[in-house]
Design goal:
The protein has about 140 residues and is of the alpha/beta class. The protein has helices at about 10-20, 30-40, 95-100; strands spanning about 10, 45, 60-65, 70-75, 85-90, 105-110, 115-125. The chain has a single domain, classed as Transcription elongation factor, GreA/GreB, C-terminal domain (Chitinase A, domain 3, Roll), CATH 3.10.50.30.
């Protein structure tokens, strides 16, 4: 059984993500059901209540894939920004796995091909809420 730690999302991110999920162009994407499940189980806080060290949308996060010990530093973005260097879309499996995790948490996540990976959050280098940016 996969390890699914508790996650937290901001109410602003939740509204924007639910609107994005409802868009017809996203309906057939393979990771959509996983993202919906994550949002359904998330604790929701107001943006001003989001603690530093929590991965929110537009956060830059440093994480490790435990089986390979490969480290990554990426910014979690909405699909329209997913092609930018150093960015990862919320609609790819690793992107939806990162959302709502805190520094030190690990999540087991299935990626295309049926393989399961384990991701561990090392640091949140930039978080909009910690910078006072609540409306993005």
């Amino acid at each position: 059984m996969a390890h699914l730690p508790s996650i937290t999302v901001s109410s602003l991110d939740l509204v924007r993500l639910e609107q994005m999920i409802a868009e017809p162009k996203h309906q057939k994407l393979p990771g959509l059901a996983d993202l919906k499940r994550e949002l359904d189980r998330a604790t929701v806080l107001e943006p001003t209540q989001i603690p530093p060290g929590l991965v929110t949308m537009n956060s830059t996060v440093r994480f490790v894939e435990d089986s390979t010990l490969s480290e990554y530093e990426l910014t979690l973005v909405y699909p329209e920004d997913g092609g930018a260097a150093g960015a990862i879309s919320i609609l790819v499996p690793v992107g939806s796995a990162l959302l709502g995790l805190s520094v030190g948490q690990t999540i087991d996540w299935q990626v295309p091909g049926g393989r399961e990976i384990s991701l561990r959050i090392l640091d949140v280098l930039k978080q909009p809420e910690a910078m006072g940016k609540y409306h993005r």
